Task: structure prediction
Amino acid sequence: MSTTGDSAQPISGAAESGKECADWQALMERIPYARHLGLEVQRGDAGVLVHLPCREALIGNFMLPALHGGVLGALIELTARVAAQSQDAETRCPRILDSHINYLRSAKARSTFARADIVRQGRRTSLVQVTCWQGDENKPIATGQVQLLLPTMAAQQEDRHGH
Amino acid sequence: MTKPNRTQHSNAVATAWQFTEQVPHGRELGMQVVSVDQGQVCMRLTPQSWMFAQEDTKEICTSVLYSLADSAGGLAVFAGALELMPIATLDLRMDYLRPASGDQALLAVATCRHLTDEVAFIHCDILSEGNRELLATANATFMRNTQGQQFHAGGRGKESA
Result:
């Protein structure tokens, strides 16, 4: 890494974004269904992105063709889960409580991207807004809000005892 | 499982049933249509280990339930309308009541609650097949008569819009 010419701020910003990207990647790789879908964590201009490469098995309407609504559901839910977990100081694994997705444009059979905005990161819950687009980030094809529950210590122990 | 009752149905429902079973993503997840009766649809999905939400638990990823609800909801539109027309999901809201165990098949029961010329309102419950425990509920709105599509099950790619 070069230190000449540049101010300290952009360099540390880039390093942080690189670390954030690596953190997301590690969390995403732990999710079997995310691996199956082929979700890839990437570094975008304004933060971390999740890329869903297109393949035939993700099609929901072969007349158009268009991606299945549930595939966008998965992209949104899993992006929200990783965003919430990476924001948590203890990287607790969140439980998805609910999700509400609006479909704005038809999802063509091509690469799809998602970015997450944390609406609120609380002590017990996290609300994440996810935006999906294909060619043009300013023309989203779907947006979703996902509510996640961050387990308390007591709940984690209960889980371990099989309740 | 009982023999599917596809043959008892109107052409519209039979075609929509056939269309649903041909959807590539539905096939990949192993979704099956169990029954279509009086505007109510039942679909089934057998979990596999690549559908799990974490390495160390046998919990099915919520997004698999989401896909199942979306597919069952779409078929419920045709079960309610009894006519073929292109549809599109406008929005879908899922509530995940309980973790879905990978040991049990999932059942989706979707009902068309209300139908207008333009919109269909669908409710879907996702249950665990064994104990019939309610795992998740979904409410979805579908747009009917979306333009630029033609509907032909069985004619894959034959007359795309």
About this structure: Strands of chain B lie at 32-37, 40-45, 87-96, 106-115, 119-128, 134-144. Chain B touches chain A through 45 residues (CB under 8 Å).
